[in-house]
Amino acid sequence: MSAYYPTQCTPTVYPADPFDPQADAETLRNAMKGFGTDEQALTDVLGRRSITQRLEIAEAFKTMYGKDLAKEIKSEVGGNFETVLVALLTPLPNFYAGELHHAIQGLGTDEQALVEVLCTLSNYGVQAVAKDLVAELKSELGGVFEDVILSLLTSLPEYYAKELHHAIQGLGTDELALVEVLCTLSNYGIRTVAATYEKLYERPLEKDLKGDTSGHFKRLLVSLCTANRDENVDIDLAAAHADAEALLNAGENQWGTDESTFNMILVSRSYAHLRQVFREYEQLAGHDIETAIKREFAGSMEDGFLSIAKCVKDKTAYFAERLHDAMAGAGTNDRTLIRIIVARSEIDLGDVKEAFLRIYGKCLEDRIESDCSGDYKKLLITLVA
């Protein structure tokens, strides 16, 4: 079972055993030698060898006869039979790259082929295959469909760095996007994204966050950006109770609110510890931490602390809520929709789908079906299904 596929995959072509590339090369040479071509011999050899074995055969053919096997096949056969044989001799990244190029450069753009290739490869596979096709894709595509395709071609650190930059530098600051990205990444993830951001834009992420936000919300983002959250899974019950009391005394048990205490505890403590803190808080206060945050804070600070609390309790439910809100009311927040679906598709989007159905009583695919249209809709549903 691979790390990419959640179930055991069953191929139809297996490596030949025993395998002799020189003997196979000789068989192919004889099949194309003289008058006529032995198509069955070509089929028997190339149709019953794995891709690595086929490439070994091609190398042996060149060594033994000084000729390129694919070119020899092209000179001997034609039509779809030739197309299949040449495809069998092409390394998968090159083959997929050729298919994408054909889908872009042919008469019209073959959106279905683009979706098929880009949605069935891993992130690494997509980037290996299509990294040199970005300019072509931009010239052929447009709108939100283009946005999704280009997102699929971008490594996650670079993608998140670009999303943070857009949230900071766009028209107004997208505080919810900033919080979403910084609250849902691990320490390593935040550091990697921050390093990528500085490489892309030649200035530190923290500096841009400071320049575009203010007050306690700026301090919250800077704290998240330091990526120093404790990631220990052990829980100290006494310490958790003390933190719950500290939060209560910093908010509901006094006049005014001590934002620094909330910031320090919610940003630096581990998720496992915070889950226990929230249980202790509910026993002390008689209501959950979200209720307390809503009473004590407003605006960006409320959004920020609520996002942390929701991620601590159930990150998949948090993403489900973000997707729901992106499609609620008039219009669609396409950027949020694309970001979450693309970024989580190889991590936990299946769990997010289950949370969406549990919370809202409707399949995520059905919601996308009713809220989006065209190739954009088809591509999102392909990623989600």
UniProtKB/TrEMBL annotation:
Position of the signal peptide: none
GO biological process assignments: endosome transport via multivesicular body sorting pathway
Metal-binding listed as a keyword: no
Coiled-coil regions, chain positions: none
Molecular function in Gene Ontology: calcium ion binding; calcium-dependent phospholipid binding; phosphatidylserine binding
Keywords of this entry: Annexin, Calcium, Calcium/phospholipid-binding, Repeat
GO cellular component: cytoplasm; nucleus; plasma membrane; vesicle membrane
PANTHER family, per the entry: ANNEXIN, ANNEXIN B9
UniProt remark on domains: A pair of annexin repeats may form one binding site for calcium and phospholipid.
Family: Belongs to the annexin family.
Protein known as: Annexin
Provenance organism: Megalurothrips usitatus
